[in-house]
Amino acid sequence: MSSEPDPLFGLISTFALLSLFAVGGANAAVPEMHRIAVEVHHWMTEKQFADAFAISQLSPGPNVLIVTLIGYAVAGVAGAVGATVAMCVPTAVLAYFVSRRLARSSASRWPAVIRTALVPLSIGLMAASSLVVAEAADKTWLAALVTVTVAIIAAATRLNPLWLLLVGGALGFAGVI
Amino acid sequence: MLSQSPPAPVPAPATNPVPPGLIALFAAFAKISLSGFGGVLVFARRAIVDEHRWMTAEEFNETYALCHFLPGPNVVNLSVVFGSRFRGVAGSVAAFAGLVGPPMALVTLLAALYAHFGEVDALRRSLAGVSCAAAGLLLSAVFRMMVPLLKKREILLLLVMAAVFIAIGWLRLPLPRVLLLAAPISIAISSAARRDAA
After folding, report:
1. Which one of B80, B168, B179, B186 makes the best mutation probe of the A interface by having the most chain A beta carbons within 10 Å?
2. Among the four A3, A40, A167, B112, which has the fewest Cβ within 10 Å?
3. Each residue of A115-172: pLDDT tens digit?
4. Residue spans per domain, chain A
5. Taking the complete model, does pTM exceed 0.80, yes or no?
């Protein structure tokens, strides 16, 4: 696959660590995935990364599945499964023990201060995700216009996001974007 | 409906007294996951609270709040916490496998197809269009999350948000380093604000 030593190990250790830093969910970790997969290791091109994000958003299931696509690009089926499991298990183990502890103690609520403190971090990360994906996806002014229009429609209505993705795909297919 | 039941608007939904078995957990989460186009959470709430009545709405909200503020994929955390509540570690594994296994198999198949046909021009163009729209969806999520913070005029927290955005989005600094610096600052600001309010 690549000239680097054992890409599968690099993949699994990378996502296992990222799992614990994905404050605000998988979409908040998209810039770090991009940095690692495109800029540092050159596992994917910019276009392949944008496509992987698009496919993961089109597919049913949790957002974390972009990791499956990155894993496949690096090491085939083993990479797809290894990366996905690595991205889920560390935080899943953490969630298991934290929920057990909270269920036993009288304080069943997550401390309010930490909750307030994490909000700006996850919004900042999501904003960075938007920028990274937009930079990878929007190569023309018209494409950027589609992004902004979709953002406005999605913010103003309760339309299922899948429809907006499909309209974007149709515009792309028609050669408009 | 019993004839003597009072005409209350909606009867308080009691939870199902029978806890789900491992196969039921796996099947429920697989169904939630595979119907979750454009967000799994809605389907998780519908299945767990309305359909199976394994949790009340409050219990669900509390569990989700916990999972949202832990790092990592939120719904994945939810499946693990939910499964463990009924069947311990085995329940966690069953719910997690149901949530992630089937869509992962599907996406792996899509990845293989992409590896073969990714250069086909019509597909290239279509996916480029989808990713433009996907970027817009992310942007709208950011906007919706930001509104409460703007309304409360939390200037310092907004500054933290902007700093994280610049560090990660523009400067492309490594995430762990940025968070290890930003998290303590944000916690200090939040606890100071809380002390002022008290």
Report:
1. B168
2. A3
3. 888 899 999 999 999 999 999 998 899 999 999 999 999 999 988 889 999 999 999 9
4. 7-109
5. yes
